[in-house]
Amino acid sequence: MSSPVNPSAPRRPRPVAGWRAALLAALAMVPLAAPLGGCALFGAPDEPRGNRVDAELLRDITPGVSSRADVSALLGSPSATSTFDAREWYYISATTHLRPARVPGIDNQRVVVVRFNERGIVEGVEQKGETEMRNVAVVERTTPVPGNDRSVLQALFGNIGRFGPAPTQPVTPGAGAPAP
């Protein structure tokens, strides 16, 4: 015999129905979250570039005492030297981060300039940050090259009828062949 059902007793929710609702809610969120798949919660890591010079190593360089060999042993070879006078060495470094679909962004750029006298002894050490630097504008002009201003159709059909039939070479006996 079945027990009588008490109509006033609260109904317990079925655990399966709650699980199905949670699954449907999660599946409904997937199409909404898909466009955010390329977005990162954490930024791209910073990338050090160039020849970074530590402040401790700069303290070991003494103007009037240290030579080119000393500086090279401490800091390594320079990133660049002066164009017209090799008495200035430049150690250039930057910290960059990746930006989506663009060139890397520069966060921190620093240049250390080591200046030498005629005998190769350090005259001075100077550090330059972003405030002392200036942007050099790239010239947008281009130099025209003669002969490259043809359209696609001119390039495809321009040589039709321009050349005659290939000339034939006279047949001559090769080396070791009997003479006629």
UniProtKB/TrEMBL annotation:
The keyword Flavoprotein does not apply. One of its GO terms (cellular component) is outer membrane. It holds the Pfam family BamE. Keywords: Lipoprotein, Membrane, Signal. InterPro entries: BamE-like, BamE_dom. Residues 50-124 form the Outer membrane protein assembly factor BamE domain. It comes from the Bacteria. The keyword Ribosomal protein does not apply. This is Outer membrane protein assembly factor BamE (Lipoprotein component of BamABCDE complex).
